[in-house]
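testing teh design pipeline on a random one, pls ignore if ur not involved
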């Protein structure tokens, strides 16, 4: 069984990371080199020369072609070798793998699996990252842990109360039960927690200007493996959305995570926070950026610590893992990911 679900779009980079320099990434265990052509198109090729396996990311761009830094084998944007040293004839099999790649709202997505299937698989909706009426911040963190630990972390937000106390956690998060819905057809797991009359955490108090008590909704939609969206709603306690679907007086956030397995023991955690309030307020942007960075770092530190523990226990006689009601979303996600892996 492949350790990573195939035939899926994964975020490979922020658009801003890919310029005229060659960028090397490992995605689902596969070495990839990314670059931008003179016409701003994106190219993603296997990062190994067919000749002696030298990383192409250590080579040079010659126009839009990529020249290996070891012996000069040169590839065009489709991965076809167009020139080799010392002979005119280029072997017909001289080609490196080219990956389908698309750029949407600041994220660069790469298709891992059979490239023929890419057109039939939808790229997740992230339009809030650059939609009118919204402002977004974001970055990427590398975690020295298997992807499943990050999936567990994001599907169970009760950890906010403890790991992120003083930032985004208050006692109500862990105390309020969740509901979990699995949609096999859409391939989604939804976990919802609606808190009434809750304390407002620092993250929302300073950004929205609201005060306790608030109603705080957390509606997660996870699309295994690589895409997670948390719809957050903050409103003065008792304030209901209008009947027409609008919700004036409430603040909304789309907290996005793209989970990209790097190796079996490391993961790229692309995060973004989009908001529909105080969209032009630079102080709010700066505050949320520093808060979210601290929160992500708390998760990174916890998961970096967990990985060697989980890995050691895996090699040992076997330790029973205990799950409770809060884990229903995470367990549903695990089942869906296992099914995806088994399909290949
Ligand atoms: Fe967290």
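output:
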């Amino acid at each position: 069984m492949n350790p990573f679900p195939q035939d899926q779009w994964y975020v490979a980079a922020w658009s801003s990371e890919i310029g005229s320099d060659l960028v090397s990434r490992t995605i689902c265990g596969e070495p990839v080199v990314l670059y931008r052509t003179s016409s701003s198109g994106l190219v993603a090729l296997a990062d190994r020369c067919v000749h002696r396996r030298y990383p192409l990311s250590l080579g040079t761009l010659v126009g839009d072609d990529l020249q290996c830094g070891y012996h000069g084998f040169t590839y065009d944007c489709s991965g076809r070798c167009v020139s080799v040293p010392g002979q005119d004839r280029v072997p017909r099999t001289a080609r490196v793998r080219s990956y389908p790649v698309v750029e949407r709202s600041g994220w660069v997505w790469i298709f891992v699996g059979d490239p023929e299937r890419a057109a039939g698989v939808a790229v997740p909706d992230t339009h809030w990252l650059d939609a009118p009426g919204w402002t977004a911040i974001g970055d990427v963190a590398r975690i020295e842990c298997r992807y499943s630990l990050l999936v567990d972390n994001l599907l169970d937000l009760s950890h906010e109360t403890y790991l992120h106390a003083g930032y985004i956690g208050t006692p109500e998060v862990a105390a309020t039960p969740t509901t979990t819905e699995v949609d096999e057809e859409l391939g989604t797991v939804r976990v919802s927690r609606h808190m009434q009359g809750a304390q407002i955490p620092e993250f929302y108090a300073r950004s929205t200007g609201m005060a306790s008590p608030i109603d705080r909704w957390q509606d997660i939609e996870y699309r295994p493996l690589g895409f997670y969206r948390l719809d957050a709603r903050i409103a003065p306690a008792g304030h209901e959305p209008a009947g027409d679907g609008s919700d004036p007086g409430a603040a909304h956030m789309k907290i996005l995570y793209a989970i990209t397995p790097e190796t079996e023991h490391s993961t790229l955690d692309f995060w973004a926070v989009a908001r529909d309030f105080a969209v032009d307020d630079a102080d709010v942007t700066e505050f949320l950026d520093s808060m979210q960075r601290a929160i992500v770092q708390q998760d990174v530190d916890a998961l970096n610590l967990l990985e060697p523990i989980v890995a050691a226990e895996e090699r040992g006689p076997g330790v029973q893992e205990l799950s409770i009601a809060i884990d229903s979303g995470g367990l549903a996600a695990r089942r869906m990911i296992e099914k995806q892996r088994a399909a290949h």
